[in-house]
Amino acid sequence: MTVRFFILQTHYRSTLDFGNDALLAAEKGLKRLMEAYEWLKELRVESHELRDEAPDKELEARISELIAELDDFMNDDFSTARVLANMFELVPVINSLKDKSISIASLSPETLHLLQSKMKLYVEDILGLKSETEAEAKKLKGIINVLIEIRKEARARKDWATSDKIRNQLLDIGIQLKDEKDGSISWSLI
Fold first, then answer.
1. How far apart are CA 23 and CA 29, in angstroms?
2. Beta bridge partners of 178
3. CB 108 within 8 A of CB 58
4. Which secondary-structure segment (H or E) carries 175?
């Protein structure tokens, strides 16, 4: 997937500057894109449809413009590099929704559905980018969720030793837990 992503970052008629540093940068970029996409894919818009605040029209207009340009860029001689550039402008918005620095209510359900469907269309169907192994990723998520639940129970019992042991051992194998302000626990691969 990293090699595919690396190639997609350059127009198909352009010369590729192939090297270890370029591949490492592509790997990092792919990871960033896929983490945002995986979170967006799991987002259940229906659970956020009751809203107290009006959507942010400026943010919605910017997202709609970036999404509309995806089709334009593909129709302009398969400019996958420009498609990816737009997707990387959407990633900070998705990550801000994820970490709640931008409220989900800032976007209408229609805009969220459009963002989800276009990201799926381009990431999976057009560019062919996939998680390394989706089945393994689902298993990993399940295992980590079990450990997070055990850690929550330990914290509720004020069993700090067990709670810290779970967090530290996961960190040792490259999984970082983050205690969120709302009491939930998120995780990421490092």
1. 10
2. 186
3. no
4. strand 175-179
Local confidence pLDDT in tens for the 190 residues of the chain: 889 999 999 988 888 888 889 999 999 999 999 999 999 998 887 765 556 678 899 999 999 999 999 999 999 999 999 999 999 999 999 999 999 899 888 999 999 999 999 999 999 999 999 876 666 777 888 899 999 999 999 999 999 999 999 999 999 998 999 888 887 888 888 8
Element (H, E) at 177: strand 175-179
d(CA 11, CA 28): 20
CB 151 within 8 A of CB 166: yes
Q: Select from 101, 80, 87 the least CA-distant residue to 29.
A: 87
Tokens of 153: 């129970």
Closest CA to 106 of 93, 118, 119: 93
- Report the 10 Å Cβ neighbour count for 152: 16
What gap in Å lies between CA 119 and CA 124, rounded to an integer?
Answer: 8
Using CB atoms within 10 A of its CB, is residue 123 exposed (0-12), middle (13-18) or buried (19+)?
buried
Q: Are the beta carbons of 48 and 97 closer than 8 angstroms? A: no
Strand 185-189, strand 175-179: pairing: antiparallel
